[in-house]
Amino acid sequence: MPTFQPRPAAPITADSLRHALLANRTQVLTELYRQSFPPVRRHIGRRGGSAQDAQDVFQDALLVLYEQATGGTLVLTASVSTYLLGISRNLWHHEVRRRARLAPDTLSDDVAAGLADEAEDSAEPAFAVRDYVEQLGEKCKNVLLSFYYFQQPLTQIAERQGYGSVRSATVQKFKCLERLRHAVRGAFQVATSEQ
After folding, report:
1. Beta carbons of 144 and 173 less than 8 angstroms apart
2. Strand, coil or helix: 78
3. DSSP summary character for residue 146
4. SS (HEC) of 152-169
């Protein structure tokens, strides 16, 4: 007697995922988390990351997926779980590289001690550029994060953000970066003049 084998579910398209997220975001994200987080946790754990690292990276990956899906820019060539694992791998790779650049054991003992003393003496929270990026507006934030954080090529950014040409995206990136520099410089000057 032949055994029953269920038919494989139809692959989820970017359009159906967009509609599902817009209709019931919480349920869809919860289900994506349940299905897709375990492989991400294993991947990051095997590469020296903690459970908290895996959660942080996966939440960032979910955010990227959500923004692309609801923005209509998502292109799925694999399953959603595979896509999330790919984003998570890239994010973790960038985080490992960032940590390696900032590793405290690469600093001399004097510099490391000075930084530790400075952190303890400071009553104010650390100066965070990401707060200023948030204040730039959605379009600038997306351009800068896409280029500098996710290291996407300007051709892809131009297409995704709806610019007429790569040159337009380059000009917009430059303007956004200048606005960010101006805001950070202004805040830094105010902070140093108050001390």
Report:
1. yes
2. coil
3. I
4. CCHHHHHHHHCCCCHHHH
Pick from 142, 144, 152, 30: which is nearest to 91 by CA? 152
Rounded to whole angstroms, the Cα distance separating 151 from 168 reads 18
- Residue 47 phi, psi dihedral angles, 5° rounding: -110, 30
Residue 34 identity = R
In contact, 146 and 160? CB cutoff 8 Å = yes
**107-158 pLDDT, tens per residue?**
444 444 444 444 444 434 444 566 777 788 888 888 888 887 778 888 888 8
Cα–Cα separations (whole angstroms), residue 58 to 46, 138, 151, 194: 15, 22, 18, 39
Q: Which residues in the chain come in under a pLDDT of 70? A: 1-11, 102-130, 187-195
